[in-house]
Amino acid sequence: YDIDVTRFVLSMFDELSILQRVIDQAQGPEPLHIIFGEETGFEYLKPTSFAFLNFDAGSTRQGVIGVIGPNRLNFPLVIPYLRYIGSVLSEAGRIV
User: Start and end of every Heat-inducible transcription repressor HrcA C-terminal domain (predicted)?
Assistant: First the structure.
């Protein structure tokens, strides 16, 4: 079963529309979002969770950086890293 989950998660990078559907489920003005797999509507994503951060890279560019992991992802560890990397990418985007 885990191999099927892994295959589906990896296939999301080939079929970006699936990944975009997951990201689009995030609501609210905050840049940090957490989505649990069972909320996605995809059977194979039920044992997973997503933590991702929207960031601005200059006045006209935006991006998303995230982590896909198990439902019990170590969020207290992952979230500060996402915020840090997002701030570095935002700053780099302003410089370029």
Answer: 7-79
